[in-house]
Amino acid sequence: MIEIVNITKHFEDICALNKVSASFPEGEISVILGTSGSGKSTLVRIIGGIVRPDGGAVIVDDMPVYDNETVGQRIFLIPEEPYSPRYMSTAELVKFYAGKYEGYDEERLKALCDSCSVPMKTPIRKLEKNKGLLAHLAIAVSMKVKYLICDDIFSSMDENSRKLAAQMISSAVRDWGITAVIALPDTDLLPNISGKTYELETVCRS
Q1: By the number of CB atoms within 10 A of the CB, which of 56, 130, 131, 133 ranks highest?
Q2: Which residues contact 148 (CB under 8 A, 6 or more apart)?
């Protein structure tokens, strides 16, 4: 289980998060819902161990998320704008992640890419944006991590790609029992995703 306790984060004079607490149950999909400026992307990066809060704690399976290799191998974070080197294809990028995550399933990746019509040997940056985002999601799901943390990549997808993404996440939760925490500005973007929703309110500047 992932627990966040009194998470607070400031960026100079802006309070992005103010004492946010929640528990994300295992084997389910949890949605962090918030408009632009609500702090949902900041919270996602904090949960993923990329950004440290000014106060509060993130506990994963009773362990702190920061500087913890064991926890790091259980979490895959997809940022809002996933990065890939200019020359790397899906087949090449996955080798980087496979060195970190022990559960990588090559056949699963191929099946996911085929289902989304994502060519594995084309550099990701040369793919149409929808395909590139689906490629990153397919890589993440194929690692079979315990926790998939996903920032809002869905706003940049067309409707068909969002449906494919929702199917990918839902099947991973159903078939492998992963826990998915995804950030959205509006639940209508992924109407086929069912799960507990946590709504963030925009915090006023101080």
Answers
A1: 133
A2: 76, 78, 140, 141, 169, 172, 178, 179, 180, 181
- What is the chain's Cα-based Rg? 16
Q: Whole-model pTM above 0.85?
A: yes
* Sequential pLDDT tens for the chain (206 residues): 999 999 999 998 888 999 999 999 999 999 999 888 788 999 999 999 999 999 999 999 999 998 888 898 999 999 999 988 878 999 999 998 888 888 899 999 999 999 999 999 999 989 999 999 999 999 999 998 999 999 999 999 999 999 999 999 999 999 999 999 999 988 888 887 878 888 887 554 44
- N- to C-terminal Cα distance for the chain? 33
